[in-house]
Amino acid sequence: MKSHLHQGVLVCVAACLLAGGGCRRQAEHAERTSENHRNARRTPLVELYDKCKDSVVNIHMVEKVPTEDGFAYQGSWGSGWILHSAGYIITAEHVINAPGRHRVILPVAQDVIDAPRHRAILPAAQHFDCRVVVRYPSLDIALLKIERDEPFSAATLGRSDNVMVGELAGTIGNPTGLWNTFSVGIVTGLGRISGAADSYVYGMIQTDAGINHGNSGGPLLNALGEVIGVIDGIKSEAENIGFAIAIDQLRASFPDMISPEMRYGFILGLDVDTMTADAPVTSVVAGSPAAIAGFAVGDVITRVGEMDVGHGLDFYLALVDRSAGDELPITLTRNEQIIELSVTLDALALRPAAQQPESLTAGLKYEAFLGQWDELPDFDKLSPIRVGRIDAVTLPEVNEATVGIGLRMMGWLEVPVDGLYTFLLISDDGSRLFVGDTLLIDNDFLHMPQVKHGLIRLQAGMHPIMVEYFDGGGGKALGLSIEGPGLERQPVPPSMWFTEPLPEPPEIIDLPTTDLSDDSS
Fold first, then answer.
1. What is the pLDDT of residues 379-400, one digit of tens each?
2. Which end of the chain is more exposed for a tag (fewer CB within 10 A), N or C?
3. Handedness of CA 374, 397, 193, 276 (dihedral sign)
4. Which pTM value belongs to this model?
5. Which CATH number among 2.30.110.10, 3.30.1330.30, 2.40.10.10, 2.40.70.10 corresponds to the domain 156-250?
6. How far, in whole angstroms, is CA 35 from its chain's centroid?
7. Measured between alpha carbons, how far is 56 from 48 in angstroms, rounded to an integer?
């Protein structure tokens, strides 16, 4: 009896082992079949997403707002992409203009194939507090910085000078908070003009790739996975019309955007090309620390301090947060030889305050002119039709039908403390801002409302200011804002403006309220 029972058990065990082996072989075959099936569906678009997704970040803004029951949290979303593995991120400035706390969210890759069937897959993520390094309203661009011990996956920078209408265009972003949403379309237009915040940006790329609220700041990608633009907005009254700031605009503006010497108060005396695939030196200022250290035009920078430099934008990023007195090791190639130089950064002096006149009164003196111009005229050669005083840099009351107005405003700006000040001049059409004899902002051409910015380090006290403006027809806009130590960005307040008293009474001639397009001065 026991013998028969023992034999039966052995037979059952053997059967189970055989069945188990068969199940394993079937499972392995099914897995191989599934993987082969998946690989067969791995199109170039899948490859494009996989190549680029880790360099795209999500930006979340959370604001605490009061309610009848106490308070509540409300949030908004934006996108961005990693420019350098050290954690520098490009996004749209209007994204970080949203109030509240800003955090960068970087999704963590997951293998969805190994996940149990029918289980909800929630994205894992790393959350980072971010620092706003630079705000550049001229292009509606901002530069952020996040930190961690490991390097980040940086995007591949492309060019936009050879973008073709009809070529593939893709974007990865965060529409309405849906992380890493991938959308593709084509380039549907070039050289567009689109509104961004309070001004217009020129030379934009138009695409029909799906763009929604939350995509702003994300990358516009070509078929090679190169960033060719920065998503900036949509045409709300149409469908499938989105706009991206051309990457060449960012490349060309980057030295001005970072302005490391003025921003951080040191002198290096070295410029590099931001339009090429590497970082060649384009100029060395005579007598500067760079010249003394032995740099020459044509040198190709490959490393600054601890930061690798792949292209010209990396060079300027490597100068962020440097200070006067720093000894900076720089590696370069010259005639196919690797050379290491060391340069000590000099201090950049503050612009000294001027000796002010004995008697000053609040406001600015302005002169108004009539004429038709395509660029700012020499106002010294013209006779004003109105002279008066105004509280701030703005347009005097002028009938919108009046065409052909020129303005010159002069006064003294009282700076409260030593430090770096940023001025933002918005106009429609051309304008210029002088601090003393320094042309700080040149916004002089026929255009729709456009903002330009300039940085300057000022000593506390009075500084002579002059603003020039002309209107060539159409809309009219003029304003000047300031940002500096203890000053959030704001229109320059009337309390900071002073002028010499005007003759009593000042000469005043009313501006006509009809079209003056046939008149000239």
1. 999 999 888 899 999 988 765 5
2. N
3. positive
4. 0.85
5. 2.40.10.10
6. 42
7. 13
